[in-house]
Model the fold of this input.
Amino acid sequence: MENLNESNFEEKIGKGKAVVDFWAPWCGPCKMMGPVFEDVSKKVEGVTFAKVNVDEAQELAGKFSVTSIPTIVKLEDGKEVDRRSGFVPEEDLKSWLA
Done:
């Protein structure tokens, strides 16, 4: 699981399939989503899983127009293809990524 910021985002997410969890430590739903996101990252292959703390990477959150958290963004070769906001149960997250 990568922790991303403005300086390493392109390097880590620029190629292939990725899913990024935009979150904050004070966010209740983010605390619920965190363990689910980590569990799914261990079960789904061929996808890079990463997290962005919106408090520490405000420019990156702005670039992706993140207005509520948690927001999970699905990317292919660095370009957004879909997103989900709010808590996503494990089975829903796995099927969304399939």
Remarks:
- The CA atoms of residues 5 and 56 lie 7 Å apart.
